[in-house]
Amino acid sequence: MKIGLIFPPYSHRKFEENLPTVSEEFGVYPPLGLAYAASILENAGHEVILIDAKALKLSKEDTLKRIKEFNPDVLGFMLTTYMFRLTLDWIKFFKQNTGLPLIVGNINMALYPKETMSHKEIDYGIIGSALKPLPKLIKAIENGTGLKGIEGIAYKNNDKIIIQQPKSFKEELNKLPYPARHLLPNHLYYQFISKRKNFTIMITTMGCPSQCSFCYLKKIPYQERTLNNTLGEILECYNKYKVREIDFFDPSITNNKKRVKKLCEMILKQKLDLHWSCRARVDQVDEELLSQMSKAGCKRIYYGIESGCQEILNKNKKNISLKQIEDAIKTTKKNDIQALGFFMTGQIGDTRQSVLKSINFAKKAGFDYIQACRTIPKPQTDLDYLMQKHTHYDYWRNYVLGTVEERRIPTPWTTLTEEEKFELTRRMYKKFYFRPFYIIRNISKIKSKHELKRYIRTTFGIFNKKSLKDEI
After folding, report:
1. Spans in the chain with pLDDT lower than 50
2. Is residue 171 part of a domain?
């Protein structure tokens, strides 16, 4: 069969944690979930087109033209909860203009399968991993056979929604084919602070053993790809797609330090002209590891700091200390690796005073970059359950159903108002990035007109007074 996969353009949502300009400007990333699905389908003998309308800046009509030229038998979309309604709008358009069977997958199907399937335009859903159920579902559609017994799918039978949960949500990472990057415009991807082309993202682990109150990833079983499997994808990116910068999207790649050291040794043996970045916890790095990572091409580490106030770190189950943060940043920079700190305003117990402490800490700790956001109750996290207890309803479930408006969501764990969180977040950016020596140092490091334009757009966007009014 011929399958058309579509990734719509996305834009800032009112309930998001990031300031609007950060959402819009932080980067354009390959749709890895769809690229995995495309590879699974190709391995099963099907012909696939994957249209990244975000990267290609395509309208619905432009995308429809490409779809009609390909003439698929089935269409597929990936659904995240944040972008559910935006994607649903595209789904409705393509259902109306093609009438084709339509399949959805990704995290929203695992969180809210029944609510997702309640929309008449959606015919089928993949719950959890697509590795086994997706080929079975396509084969059943092709042959006109029954769907009963296929684990990990959802469908409708005489308007009745049938949910057939998978036995396990654990992804078989080492059995997944590499993402179908040959279907993607790899030259168009970038991150706000990426320096090289081509740029891509990868995962080497899934899940996270940490217990942070604001994060859903702790519910996903932690698992690792084999090093040979990981290195194979790195080499494919480097040799086949001319990738020269990779961002490893693992929640914390250093959960297993011995594994990372071995991976660095393997990369070094290949003698690649490759730069890479990753995410890590400050309590999972040391001098030996960082030295090895630097030699293997690591240029940037994104650390989840969240707060510069120890009391707030403790209340939000970060299980790190301010001293650990300072020591990790110092050692990171000593090994010629840039450090970015993720910060949050409006966490459990946050006050104006505690956020001001965070701002001062961000300035003095030695970070090369920071990203600040407002704390929100992400779907099915500890904070989401706190919000539900306070409001007596599940905002995200109703958002997927279409029964509530898109808006800022209550955060009863802090006394900070939405206006205060917005202004404090913006203040953190201003106090960090608008120091004279910082501006001079970083402008001198800009290597392209494209990078300079991103810098200017983001700078002016952060201080756009209209952005808060658009959200409240």
Report:
1. none
2. no
DSSP string, 38-98: HHHHHHTT-EEEEEEHHHHT--HHHHHHHHHHH--SEEEEE--STTHHHHHHHHHHHHHHH
Domain with 267, as residue range(s), is: 189-375+414-471
173 within a domain of the structure (yes/no): no
SS3 179: coil
**Token pair of 412 as six digits:** 């009863």
Which of 131, 78, 76 shows the shortest CA–CA distance to 101?
Answer: 76
Q: Which residue has the tokens 């008449």?
A: 120
DSSP string over 4-15: EEEE------TT
Reduced 3-state DSSP string for 97-151 = HHCCCEEEECHHHHHCHHHHHCCCCCCEEECCCCCCHHHHHHHHHHHCCCCCCCC
Domain boundary among 164, 199, 231: 164
Output the six-digit token pair for 94: 């393509």
Residue at 406 is within a domain: no
**83-104: per-residue pLDDT in tens?**
999 999 999 999 999 999 999 9
Question: Count of domains in the chain?
Answer: 2
pTM here? 0.93
The answer to whether residue 396 is domain-embedded is no
- Half-sphere exposure for 73 (CA within 13 Å, toward CB): 12
Q: Helices then strands (H, E): number in the chain?
A: 20, 17
Whether residue 26 is found in the same domain as residue 159: yes
CATH of the domain at 59: 3.40.50.280
Domain match, 207 and 254 both: yes
Judge if 151 and 279 occupy the same domain: no
What stretches of 155-194 show up as alpha helix (H) in DSSP? Answer: none
**What pLDDT is recorded for position 457?**
60
User: Is residue 276 within 8 Å of 246, Cβ to Cβ?
Assistant: yes
Q: What is the pLDDT of residues 193-215, one digit of tens each?
A: 898 999 999 999 998 888 888 88
Tokens in use for 59? 């309208």
Contacts 24+ apart (CB under 8 A), 320-326: 320/281, 320/282, 320/283, 322/361, 324/282, 324/283, 325/282, 325/365, 326/365, 326/366
